[in-house]
Amino acid sequence: MRKLSLIFCLSAGLAVQGPVSVSAAELVPSGNRNATQPKIPGASARRTRGSSFNAKYNKIRNLLAKDRKLMGKIKKAATTFGIDPIHIVGALVGEHTYNVDAKDRLQSYYVKALAYLNQDLSFRYKGTSVERLVSQPAFAKCNKFKNSYSLWSCREGVWNASYRGKSKEGKRWPNQRMGRVFFQPFYAGQTFGLGQLNPLTALKVNDLVRSRVRREPKLSTRRAPEIYNTIMEPDSTLIYMAAVIRNSIDSYKSIAGFDISKNPGLTATLYNLGNVRVRAYALKSKNDRRKSAGKKAQPPQENYYGWLVNDKEADLRSIL
Fold it and tell me: Most exposed: 33, 39, 47, 232, by fewest CB within 10 Å?
């Protein structure tokens, strides 16, 4: 974690400026790079007490297979962002196998999304709103960025470098991700809805979404209920999922030099881990060192979550 935080701080200034141009990207074929599944975190096991990973997989898999309307929405979102729908299916399966249980009916997500619109919600930590936080001088350098991904990536970088786990402005700040500290209602969870999205993730890709889907609103931290409704309402959730995946594919191709568009396990891994551009720069840096030492570049690796998606790819494609 400390290594990733350091990479985030060092690369934030580069990452927010956009991808680095490369002449050609190496295609990562479908399938897993690891013969056996990487270790599943204890937190996933704790969330599965009274059930099993296999039972949770079958529940989300069957929901997708039976609900043709939902599958149609998945395909439409994928087409909008020019990706294979297997990437969205894979992310959904990973989230609901290793994180939360899928609800029995899609309608339940619509009802829950509407409920959030009537809540008195705001993004804050112990009396400090996120608006007040990012108005501090340390964040001023981020104001030059107009694109939502660049702006919020910069702010996240400042948080990691200057606030996370440190005492500043008379307060001891938690040694946790910005998304966890400021972007969860009632401290009840970090991700929400069918796509298990974090509000900070939605803020980052808001401009990308609006460039493809004009009806989507400009999100603002001052309207927290609207953001929660956006990430919990299935129609908009799928659009944001597709945007997140599109960003992952583009970032790894242009920054790290790998085309992961044919490997749903890798896009699922990145959907699970987040901080995509930081990870792409970290992989690029690692492979630059390997090349300097006369070694072959290493492709990105799937984690336990993405490993399952690749292992089940044939089954998941059958329901498309």
Answer: 39
